[in-house]
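Appendix B, Record 12. Input sequence as logged:
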Amino acid sequence: MKPKSHGRVTMTVATKASRFDSITMAPPDPILGVSEAFKADTSDLKLNLGVGAYRTEELQPYVLKVVRKAENLMLERGENKEYLPIEGLAAFNKATAELLFGADNPVIHEQRVTTIQGLSGTGSLRIAATLIERYFP
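Logged structural output:
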């Protein structure tokens, strides 16, 4: 804080940066990068070999028989097997931020809140612990 004097009145200006300013973006996930490269490629001859998802010549998903059997069991229970983006399901993240901060909170509308979805409670705690260890020792 730097005191500024204007005659008899002294003002203090606080210029505190966010404690998150020193956090750098993690590198892209190399496995998901294969899928991103597939999406960006305009060739008609491309094949998607990323994330264990394979395509036929007609660009339809090719699923192994054992996987189809497991998939049918999941579908019977109302589940699916699609991969989420690396940060998680966007609608879930948005709802979480609104629950925590309030849907009408300016930080939500100004996009000053970032959320990610972790794998289970312990997975989420692991992500948080790594963040704290790395940036707030």
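The CA atoms of residues 25 and 45 lie 33 Å apart.
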